[in-house]
Amino acid sequence: MSPPQHLIVVSPPGSGTVLLHEITTALGYTSRGTMTPSTDTPTQTGPGEVYPLLHAAYGPDQAAALLQAHHHHQDTGPLQDAYTDALHLLWRVWWKRLGQPVTAHTTLDTATEARLTAQSDASLLGLLPGRDAWYVTGLNPAHIDGGLLRHWAATGQPAILYHHREPHDRALALIQHLTRENGKVGTIPSHLIYRDILTTLPGTDERLTLALTDPDFPGNEETRHTSWLTRHPAVHTITHEDLAGPHHGGTTTARTRALQQLATRLNTSHTAATELPDPPPGLPGLTVTARHEHASGHP
User: Fold this and answer.
1) Cα–Cα distances in Å, from 208 out to 114, 200, 203, 231?
2) pLDDT per residue over 86-102, tens digit each?
3) DSSP H helical ranges for the chain
4) Which of 103, 166, 171, 293 has its CA 20 to 30 A from that of 52?
C-alpha cells in the first residue's frame, strides 16, 4: 500500500506545530493551510494533473482551447496563468470544504469557483496536485462539508493526523508568541485581538489565567471540538511531548517510538523514520516541562 496522497493535520494553536511540519515535509508532503512550504519553490505539476483541473474549472471547450493555443503558439503564459488561477481557487474550495474560514473577497472568477465547488469530494481530492499536508487548527464536524465526512468515513481518505499538546504548556507558548516585543503576531484575527488584550495584563500569572479560562482564547474552541479525533480509530494521534525530543525536554525513546508509529500509519519504512530531522534547538516555546514528561509515562 502506498503512502496517502494527502493529509489533514489538525494542530491547535500553540501545540508546537513546527515539529510535525518538519516531519511531514521530510516525508515528501508540501504544507498548506496554517503552515506554509519550507521553501518558496512553485508548486510542481505531475503527469496528467494539468488538463483535469482545466477541464473542471473552465469546461471542456475552454480547456481544449488553452492547450491548443499553447501547442500552436508555444507560449506558456496564458496556460500557466489559467492553471495558476484555477489552482488557487481549487485550494480555496478545498479549504472551505474543511470548514475553515476564508475572506469574502477574491480577485478570481466566481464562476470558476462555482464550477469547482460543484465537484464531488472524490473528484476534488483527485484534482489536488502533488502530495499535500493540509494544516488546520481545528476540525469541527459541524463545520466540515458533510459529503467530505461521508467520503472519509467510507474510504479513510484523506488521512487525518491529530497533533496536540498539554493545555498548560500550549497556553504558555501562545502567550509567549502573542506578547512578543515587536508585536508581530501574523494576521490571524483572534491573535491580533488577544495580543492587545494580553498586553494590558500585568504579568504571566494573569495572562495564563485568562488563557485557561477564556473560552474564546486562541485554540480553546478548536480544542473543545477536536476531542472526537482522539477516539476515532482512523485518526492517528501524536503529541508534542512525544515529538519534543531531548532538545525541548522530551526523550529520544518517546520521539523514536512516535516517529515509528507515524511511519507505520503512513506506510513509510521505519528506516526512513529514524532518518527524519531532529527538532530545531533554541526555541523555548517548544519546551516540555518535566512534570508533564513524568505524567505521560515517558522514561
Assistant:
1) 44, 13, 9, 28
2) 999 999 999 999 999 88
3) 17-26, 50-58, 60-73, 76-97, 110-117, 121-127, 146-155, 167-178, 189-198, 204-213, 220-224, 227-231, 240-243, 252-265, 270-274, 290-295
4) 103
The overall pTM is greater than 0.85: yes
Residue 215 carries which side chain, given as an amino acid letter?
Answer: P
**Beta-carbon neighbour count of residue 228 at 10 Å?**
12
- Sign of the torsion angle spanned by Cα atoms 190, 195, 198, 204: positive
Determine the Cα–Cα distance for residues 76 and 53; give it in Å rounded to an integer. 16
Q: Look at the block and give the residue holding cell 497533533.
A: 163
d(CA 90, CA 66): 18
User: If phi over 0 gives left and psi between -120 and 50 gives alpha, with beta otherwise, what is residue 163?
Assistant: beta
pLDDT at 1: 66
Alpha-carbon distances of 135 from 22, 152, 160, 186, rounded to whole Å: 12, 17, 10, 16
Residue pointed to by grid coordinates 496517502: 4
Evaluate the CA torsion angle 113, 115, 121, 124 in order and state its sign: negative
Are residues 87 and 129 in contact, defined by beta-carbon separation less than 8 angstroms? yes
Q: What CA–CA distance (Å, rounded) separates 135 from 217? A: 20
Cell of residue 88, nine digits:
488557487
DSSP reduced 3-state for 134: strand
Question: At which residue does the C-alpha cell 481530492 appear?
Answer: 125
28: left (phi over 0), alpha (psi -120 to 50) or beta: left
